[in-house]
Amino acid sequence: MLRKLASIFLLLLLVSSCSTSLKIIDKPIIFDEERKHLTLEYMSSRYNIQQKEPTIEPVMIVLHWTVIPTLQESYQAFYNSKLPSWRPDIKNVSGLNVSAHFIVDRDGTIYRLLPENIMARHVIGLNHCAIGIENVGGNNNLPLTKAQLKSNINLVEYLSKKYTIEYVIGHYEYTNFENHPLWLENDSSYRTVKDDPGKDFTLKVRAGTKKYNFKPIPNN
Length: 220
Fold this sequence. Notes:
Strand order of the largest sheet: 1-4-3-5-2-6
Largest sheet: 6 strands, mixed
Order of helices and strands: HEHEHHEEEHEH
Oligomer: single chain
Shape: globular
Radius of gyration: 18 Å
Helix content: 25-40%
Distance between the termini: 58 Å
Strand content: 5-15%
């Protein structure tokens, strides 16, 4: 009996250890004075937020896909401070480059690009309160993998233990928040149509983290 109890106790310790430990590799993008200035400028012009530091208090996690097939190419897209020339659709709004806090490779490896409390440009209207998770690949040509799904669930769990996360959404759901108190975008004409990271992937991540009782997405 004692041996059996000891085995159960050891198993519980192992499960607890696995659930609280998550391997995250730091792979920072550039966050120099230029990016800091552009971020503060974005917060001021888009959200009427005046701060000395581009920090956020995250209450939301937004899931994305890059559509770019490799980690390195995806990383390079976010790396520089200024928006590249191939994004004319949003360049007139701000010169700040798009980015996210995390990127998950196709084998499930998680990389941190920015500190979680620094604003990244990844979702219209909600950057001021949202952590972004990008996934390499996506859409019909390169579907997201089971390894990515598992890592997204684990990462959402990790972040939910660090912050008071209220919502986990797919990027395609962002416009549902237009009449919500969290929505701060000033320009009613600034919207882009998104379908990432797919409804099925998003619902599976939410199902895998349902114990955190995230709030339902508003019906806009």
